[in-house]
Amino acid sequence: MSTSHSLSERRLSRRQMLFGSAYVGAGFLAGLTALVGCAPAAAPTPTAAPAQAAKPTEAPKPAAAAKVDAALAAKWTTGKVPSTSTESFYIISWEGTGKIEKWQLGINSFFENFYPNMKLQFDWGVTDYWTKFSTLIGGGATVDMCWMHDTRSPTFSQDGMIKPLDEYLKTLPPQGWPESYYPTQVEEFRYKGKQYAFPYDWAPGAFYVNVDMLEAAGVQIPTENTTFDDLLKMAQKLTKNTGDPKTTQYGVILPTGSNTTFWFTRNFNGDLVSGDPPVSHFDDPNTVEAYQYLYDLLWTHKVMPNPEEMQALGGGSWQAFATGKVGLVYALNDASNSVANAVGKKFRITAAPTPKGKNPKRYQFVGGSAFAIPKTAHLPDIAYECMRWTLANPELLPKIGSMGAGGTFVSNMDFWEHGLPPESTGIPRDAFKKSFFDLGRTDGVPHVNFVGFLQWDPQIFTKNMSLLWSGAEKDVKKIVGQVHKETVEFLKTVPSS
What we know:
Elements: E1 2-4, H1 14-18, E2 23-25, E3 28-30, H2 70-76, E4 88-92, H3 100-114, E5 119-123, H4 129-138, E6 145-149, H5 153-158, H6 166-171, H7 183-188, E7 190-191, E8 194-195, E9 198-199, E10 203-210, H8 211-217, H9 228-238, E11 250-253, H10 262-267, E12 273-274, E13 279-280, H11 285-300, H12 307-312, H13 317-322, E14 326-332, H14 336-343, E15 349-352, E16 364-367, E17 369-372, H15 380-391, H16 397-402, H17 429-443, E18 444-446, H18 453-469, H19 476-491
Parallel strand pairs: 1-5, 4-5, 4-6, 11-14, 16-18
Antiparallel strand pairs: 2-3, 6-17, 7-8, 9-17, 10-14, 10-15, 10-16, 12-13
Helix pairs in contact: 3-15, 11-19, 18-19
């Protein structure tokens, strides 16, 4: 088996690629890079069929069927493709260094065990993933397996860009499917009653906390009962504005992207887009209030670094937090090792829950990604076998959960413990478990994804809301109202789920 990857496209991590920035405005793209925000590029309509993906030129090895364990193959493969096959198999992924290694563990071992002579091309760390993916598939290029995000799943499912998995799940079911998998993630990759992708993780959001800063300011670490009013008071006590962004101390960093603020609006009894057919709720006064709160953190109370200040602190939220000048930073669970490595021994870190809203029900971000089979796959049977081996293998899942730049709650709930940060990070595991895992299970709410999201997000939400985050506009009600107006018109063009 030979493996190749694109050396020029393998630098960014999953969160750097997918969850682009907290602030996107006036040409400025910075902020919560790698940890929060969601403003990936819209996929263009292909204009011409691209060339087939490059294949490794290494000559195939002699057939090695004797190396394949027949009993193991009977358990994990369909038997439709000979183990001696020398065909090429092409995978594309956005994951970069620090994240891709755990998935390589499963994928590489799959081919080594069952198809040792196949030529595997694995392009990972693709920085313009959605553009490349759409162009390849739309142009008819062979792609056998791909990464899929929950926000994109309805669009690519509706457009027929990825294949439903139901027949595979029926004839060669993964152990424990679907009852042992996080229900929100199973549902996020279903469309019109069919399963279009196999979820590989479950990603809740919470706070990473500078314990030393909070103690020095006499601020208690947030709990699940902390309200947004409480959070503002905490952030005000933590903030020390010196007039110089390099020395000013900030209370909090929260996300501003559509995919990372939906839980936020729900806590204010608002919403973004929901229902079937999808309906805009940007005209809801509660939604306006939620974004007014976020704007005020930035520009009225100035307890959260604005885009210019974020740049001065290093350009991204983990860089800003690592300076010791930010008390609370919102991020996902799988950022734990990255955050800890950036901080080092400069201050103590813990985890804490995000706030609750007006009513007794508390809402918390949960999301995730998946593996899918493109419509142009030449070897779809092997793609499914590879997914199943990687995501339902009890021998692999403990290793996958604990590997990489941050622990991963793999999609199989039975292996959650392996996603906790190692003690070497200095992040208390009990606080992390409660903030991310326990409360994520009880209070987690997934983003309501709809067909056309990948066009709507940059063309309507980001275009308008970036004016607020950059400070170019001050009237929150006006801007959110414009998002509503354009969203209503946009939704007339998309089908229901």
